[in-house]
Amino acid sequence: MDRRIESLQRRCAADHRVISLGGGLPAPVLFPRRALAAAAARVLRRADDAALQYGWPEGGAELRGYIAAGLRARGVSDVSAEDVVITSGAQQAVAIAVEVLATPGARAWVEPESYPGALDILRARGVALVAGPDAPRARLAYAMPALSNPRGRVAGASARAALLTRARRDETYLVEDEAYADLCFAGPPGAPLLACARERVLLVGTFSKVLCPGLRVGWLVAPRALREEILEAKRIRDLQANGLAQWVLQDFLAHRPLARRLAHARRFYAARAAVLCDALRRELPEWRFDPPEGGFSVWLEGPEPGDDAALLEAAVAHGVGFDPGRLFVFDGAPRTLSMRVSYSLEPAERLEAGVSRLARAWRVFRRSARAA
Ligand SMILES: Cc1ncc(COP(=O)(O)O)c(C=O)c1O
Question: In a designed cystine with 337, which of 23, 24, 124, 306 is the match (CB 3.0 to 4.6 A)?
């Protein structure tokens, strides 16, 4: 990551006076502290050692079965616990998928704005990033059709069809990142693209957004032909995902159906999104955005080109942080000033105050940019 931006982000995170509209972190009030503590106590009291002993790289069978059952309920008929690999978060699932699919120099198709963590993995692997409908044939595509980051939008029928065409016609593997799928405001997600192209899609999921990222438990479901390579990549990286976290999660899920928690989380984040969007319309009318359909954030585009890192510097001086657009743009060169602002972490009154500060910083930044 850009050092200047990282040091500004670290300053925001360390100073509670700075209102954080960056980062895209889940709301701590939703962390299931008591239920996780009870699950951890039950797991540690048990006579068997599975939670504390080494395990296999694919992860615990019960948790894998839970994830497979969730996918079958969403229309993926041909999936079982055997197809699921538990990973250290979705981030590792993407990294393993990229490692297995692409050698340096290969091409990877991405959405014009994408998740920076995935872009970093692809760049570190030495692949060439391409985007847009006319991009040349690529070895793999990385997309978030269920709910995109940073835009917080659900892919429509034609975008989904285009991804499937690319997968089938060009024999491109699709890494389908569903990190936010359960946080669509309209309700539970429909069938993933995995249901339509079982041999071409590698599906990525995580408990980070709906429970807590500290668990570091995610998953990867891949075509059977790639399973051995994927398990080998997992074994080489870290032998297995955190066993204690897996067993605590397993116990937690057995005692607490997730559906009610998800319904609450959707309403909670939708309410925060509405507050943020109202504030943005009021305070930053020159900035365009599509209201999010879920997730944690809004993608904003400004009226003119400019240095988004300098705007962040001005914003931090006014007591507010955000994520500069260049982090999300596949070629790192935004056409216009852009930013991701998140509503997930801060309560309503701080969201409103944060947008007011951002608007003041924007006016100061614009005046000095015009004077220069
Ligand atoms: C789209 C997307 N994929 C993956 C991740 C990584 O999630 P995890 O915490 O499970 O590694 C994130 C985290 O922000 C994300 O936004």
Answer: 306
